Fold each of these.
Amino acid sequence: MAIRNILVEGDPTLLKKSRRVKRFDDRLASLADDMIETMYESDGVGLAAPQVGVLRRLFVMDTEGEEKPVVFVNPEIVVEEGVQRGVEGCLSLPGLVGVVSRPLSVTVRAQDLNGDYFEETFTGLAARCVCHENDHLDGILYRRRSETVLCTREEYEEEMRRKAEIEAAMRQEGDAPHDGAIPEHAADGKGHDDISEGEVDA
Ligand SMILES: [Zn+2]
């Protein structure tokens, strides 16, 4: 096993579409091993082959934190249900986060390292991660899907704090007509209560 170098945004490889894996050999197994080690080393919950410069349809994931990584070869999302809005990050866009809507649950059909097919349904964080990694295989970075301008986690938390303060102030005012002194962005109608917290660098 070896730690591989993770490409960062700006590298054109990250914007290319990956090809299907055809050979299920030792080289593939060794690539998957390296990716798993690299993912853990970087505190990520997922890592896709193009992120280490290999344009093949393969990603690894461990959202449980129990060192039970799953390898997906030639994955296809066959069912998507519901929607979740949440904070997302990416090992190829280090230090940044953005808010992305993803399906609440996905069913994936993929092959394992022996080429055998399996089908599994994932929800919550795991569903988010599957979608994020699958996007990498099509050359899509989450910046393209983010509903907010990407910022650092500290900036994001500061923004959430400010928003919460404004919302609390508005609640205190009750239904009394206000004098227009409330900043516009406090009334954009986008509640953030539904945003799930959790680190998703993937
Ligand atoms: Zn990523």
Amino acid sequence: MNIRLFFLILITISSSALFAEIENPYQKKHFKSENKSMIAFDNSYFDSIECKRYDFNTKLKRQAFQIMDELEGWCTYQKASILIDFVLMARPQIIVEIGVFGGKSFVPMALALREIGAGVAYGIDPWSSGESVQGMEGPNKEYWSNVDHDAILRGLQEKIKKHGLENQIQLIRSTSIDAPSIFNIDILHIDGNHSDETSFIDVTKWVPLVRRGGVNYL
Ligand SMILES: C[S@@+](CC[C@H](N)C(=O)[O-])C[C@H]1O[C@@H](n2cnc3c(N)ncnc32)[C@H](O)[C@@H]1O
């Protein structure tokens, strides 16, 4: 079966209850589709008019964006805003992120956890060039071979301490396949190695660990 089709079916089945429990006024702004099982969307969505209408000007988001400026990574303010909304709406006990790097998408979710006063965010990443180059070719391979993963991890640990997020965050230095399974996940964010092979492992291992009605964000 085509790998993309397999993912789509798997995600749709596992998450058919998404937002059944998280009815909220932002749903229509954040999702083009009325289909309640529509949960996987790509970054092009964040450039859409619907997303741009959203008000980022809350105290929590302003604080998150400031901290993001100190962190390494690729997460945009728009994406962070949506991740924060997921946390505020779902009020999760357990968040798992696969592929943390410098924490640019992970730390905003942890900040939102602190705001609601509950929950833990588990960040899984091997912080290893050897793992990052798996399945990569050309410029991507060159880029990932030259990243100083130890320094990226150290930088993240310093920022977690600086911003007092130790109670909300647990970092697990491991590949997604070797990491211990975490059950009843409320919010899963998969952003690890983007090769077909590793993405396949990430989805097949972790999506089934999301609780019914939980959020999968790929
Ligand atoms: C695209 S970056 C993550 C970006 C981050 N989420 C952000 O928004 O800034 C991909 C990360 O996946 C990690 N990674 C590579 N192989 C992995 C694996 N097998 N399991 C988990 N993470 C992996 C890399 O170390 C890297 O930090």
